[in-house]
Amino acid sequence: MNNKSFLSIITSAMPLLDEYYPEYVLKYSLETNMITDSSFYSIEHQNKNLHLFSQPPQIANLSQSLLWSKYHYTFYWKIYKSDLLLMTLIVRFIYFIQVLIILLTLPLYLATFYILSKYNFINNISFSTSSDIYFYIKLKIEKYITTTPTITFMIPYINFVNYSKDYNWFLELIRPQSSPFTQTMNRNIYKTWNGEALINFKWKAYGKYYYAMIWILFMVLLGCFTAAATISQQYISEEVRQQLFIISIILGFIHLIFEIRQFFYNIIKWFYNFWNIFGKYKCLI
């Protein structure tokens, strides 16, 4: 697939295809199961299982390591500007001292530089004896770790889950804007590898955090209201009871906002939702 932009034309029309020609949605999902983002692909050896997982682009922020690079550049530049013989003696002496310290504190050294490397406080761009030894040891250790040959495929749903260009966060609070992903309710998409990888990406990126936040808010609401309504005055004071009721009211309004957003997003679907029957029944009572 040389030009990925053509795929966005198909995915943008996916809701219409799902409504009028659902068989084409299945055909597209099956025929784009194993495509790469380039005609020249490489087999990589990674220490990962064979389960489907997403690989979003990752940008490493190396700004924390600028001080490290600047220090070593300045230090070695001053040495190189000095006398050649003196420079050689100083460099060898420093190298000997660093190696000796590393050997005496090897476990602590590896743990410390692992943390520094993980959070990008050091890098392997600039020359440094202390960091170069760590990256050399790390490279040797990784050679003995069992890896699996993997090929990275591309998810063909280009611009399928993107927000619209006229996105407005204020209107999003009142009436959520839809995307082809939310408009297309076709299970055939999610029976394929691409669909599973897409769902895994959305769940890991923000889905699990939204889910946990809503559940935590609901449990806090339930706990505060239950405590304020059932616990007798001999255990909690009237002031604490009022505070619990105020917290319950605030959290109740938050959940009411979620319900209002669902209602305005699709009024007909909201009325036909089985779980909303209990709410409508209570309103009638």
Please tell me about this protein's structure.
With 285 residues, the chain is mainly alpha-helical. Among the domains are: 1-31, no CATH class; 63-143, no CATH class; 203-280, no CATH class. Helix content is 63%, strand content 2%. It has a two-stranded antiparallel ribbon with strand order 1-2. Residues 281-285 have low confidence and may be disordered.
Biggest beta-sheet profile: 2 strands, antiparallel
Strand residues, percent:
under 5%
The shape, in one word, is flat
How would you spell out the order of helices and strands? HHHEHHHHEHHHHHH
Enumerate how many helices there are, as a single number.
13
Mean pLDDT across all amino acids = 77
Q: Give the neighbour order of strands across the main sheet.
A: 1-2
Proportion in helices: 55-70%
Radius of gyration: 29 Å
Q: How many strands? A: 2
Descriptive tags:
single chain, 285 residues, two-stranded antiparallel sheet, 2 strands, 2% strand, flat, disordered C terminus
Write the layout of secondary structure elements.
Layout: H1 5-12, H2 14-20, H3 22-31, E1 44-46, H4 66-80, H5 84-104, H6 106-118, H7 129-143, E2 148-150, H8 169-174, H9 180-183, H10 193-230, H11 238-265, H12 267-272, H13 277-284
Antiparallel strand pairs: 1-2
Transmembrane segments: 93-116, 209-231, 243-260
Keywords: Membrane, Transmembrane, Transmembrane helix
